[in-house]
Amino acid sequence: MIGRKNMGRPSPVLLVLLVLGFFFATYNLLTIVMHHKASSSENLSADGLKLVEPVRLMPEETKTDEISKSKYHVALTATDAPYSQWQCRIMYYWYKVMKDKPGSDMGKFTRVLHSGTPDNLMEEIPSFVVDPLPQGLDRGYIVLNRPWAFVQWLEKATIEEEYILMAEPDHIFANPLPNLAKGNHPAAYPFFYIKPAENEKIIRKFYPEENGPVNNVDPIGNSPVIIKKSILEEIAPTWVNVSLRMKDDPETDKAFGWVLEMYAYAVASALHGVRHILRKDFMLQPPWDLEVGKRFIIHYTYGCDYNLKGELTYGKIGEWLVLYRKNLSLPPPGVPESVVRLVTMVNEATANIPGWET
C-alpha cells in the first residue's frame, strides 16, 4: 500500500499483477457493496451500532458438545501464478508463526498445487501437485479446480491429522486458531452473500425438496472450514459434480457468478446431511470488518482504497491504496485497524521470508 505520488517506475511483472489484482478486487468490491448495504440494515441495534454474533451453533445438539482438541491439517489449493505464489508465501509465513502458540491446534501444512507440474516454491512450502480439470472443463472459472484438487489430494496423500482446515492463499492467520469443529459437525464462516433461501428456485435444481428444507443448505463456502477428513472424503466427489453441473446450467451460472463453487460446497454438504457450526469469529474481511480483535483469519480479497482523509472510496482507486509489494506504507489516519494490521503483517512477512526479492 502506498500513496500514488510516491510510486516509482513499476516493473512489467508488477503491472500485470496489479491489473489482475485490481480487476478481481473491483469486481468483488462492487458485489459486496450491493450486498453490504442490505445486510447492514439487518444487523443494526437501536443506536446504529452493528451487532456481531460471534458464534452461531448449528444444529442445536452441538451446544452440549465440546470443541475438538484434535489437530487439523492446513490445506490450501493454489495455482503457480505469480500472485498466488506471493499470497501462499505470506500465508505460510504466518502459519509458522502461529502454529505452536498457545491456543493453536494446527498440525501440518500442505499447498495443494493444481497446476499439474511442480513450481519454484516446492522446497519453500510443503506442496502436493495434482492435476487441473481437463482443458476447457472449467470454462475459464479456475476455482472449479479446487474441489477436484481436494479429491485427488485426499485419495493420494498421507494425511496424519483427523481434521482438515480448508484455507485459501489470501488468508493470514491473525491469532492462533483452535480446532473449532465439534465431532462430526464442521466449523465454517457464514458469508452474508451466500443466501440459499433467497435462491431456492435454483438451489432446488441440485437439492430437491425430498432432501429437506432449503435452510439445510448452510450459508457458507468451503473455506474457511474445519472438517473431519473422513467426512470431507465423502463430500468432495459430490462437490466436484455439483460444481460442474452448476457451471453447466446457464441460469445457475449467471445467478451465482464468482461464488458458484461456494454454493456448490454448501449444497454438496447438505446432500450428505452435514450441518456446520457457523463462527463469525472465524474470519474478518477488511475493509468492512474494522477491527481484528480475537478473530482468527484475515481475508484480504476486497479492495482497500482510501483518500488521504482515511475515507474508503468505494470501487475507485484511492489516493492511498493496496499495492501488494514489499515495504508497504502505513495508511493515513482514520483507516480501520484491520487494514493497518493487514499492512503490518504483510510487511513483516516480506521482510523475513528468505529470498523474497527473487
TrEMBL record:
It is found in: Membrane. GO terms for cellular component: membrane. InterPro entries: HPAT-like (IPR056508), HPAT/SRGT1-like (IPR044845). It is a single-pass membrane protein. One of its GO terms (molecular function) is glycosyltransferase activity. Residues 72-357 form the Hydroxyproline O-arabinosyltransferase-like domain. Its main location: membrane. The chain crosses the membrane at residues 12-34. Keywords: Glycosyltransferase, Membrane, Transferase, Transmembrane, Transmembrane helix. PANTHER family: HYDROXYPROLINE O-ARABINOSYLTRANSFERASE RDN1, PEPTIDYL SERINE ALPHA-GALACTOSYLTRANSFERASE. This is Hydroxyproline O-arabinosyltransferase-like domain-containing protein. It comes from Cannabis sativa (Hemp).
